[in-house]
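ok trying again, last paste got cut off:
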Amino acid sequence: MHTVSLPAIAAGYRHSVLLLPDRTVRACGENTYGQCEVGSWRNIVAVAAGNAHIGNSHTVGLQADGTVMAAGWNKHDQCNVSGWCDIVAVAAGWRRTVGLKADGTVLAAGRNNEGQCEVSGWQDIVAVTAGDWHTAGLRADGTVVATGNNRHGQLKVGEWQEMTMLAAGYLHTAGLRADGTVAAAGLNKRGQCEVGGWRGITAVAAGSHHTVGLHPDGTVTAAGWNEYGQCEVSSWQHIVAVSAGCTHTLGLKADGTVVAAGSNAYGQSDTAAMLHSQPTSS
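nice, full thing came through this time. structure:
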């Protein structure tokens, strides 16, 4: 079985989330729906942030006991996850939350108008990712399954093999192969799928219209929409994890600090403030 990497940073539409070593959580950015109200969370082992093309967001936290917490926009019941148990990984899309269970099956809560929550038949899954309109799962054998909107071919992943990681953007899907190369399917209007020449990648992230790759030496590469500078990551060093939102990108450094590129219109790139904020009492 592939190793599931639990994310310590998550970039949402207009907010950012950081999991600290003491298993508490910080968030910065837009808080219109309470998506940054995570200061009371404790014993969290992974976080996810809902990314949206047109706004509204939520935040998800996986607790060490396999239960799940959520805060933020809940119009489509995407935050109704308090009854989940035995979860080992979580993903947050627009209007949707996805949970991977220890037995390799998958749960989903939220809007299902295009079948993006139809994951109940999935088995042998080791990782999940959620875009705006589609959901993808990585099987233990390195193949991929996907459901939901396929208008731009973002579900055309059935022939992918030897995958170790997936990332879903607005209308595209990226996958990391065991040999360090990257595949992408779906909307490519901004060049977000132009990753065929990437080599030696150890992790991928997908934003609304851009894709990010992490190299083993701690440097980062990006392709796609760069109107807000969200792809200006070539100078980053000592990075151990990456996450991509709509107009910003996050990088977690080996020393535990966070760097950001792109828009800060809502404070989503104000990583210093996030690190120095204090959690509220539980």
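cool. The first helix runs from residue 271 to 276. Confidence is low (pLDDT under 50) at residues 1-5.
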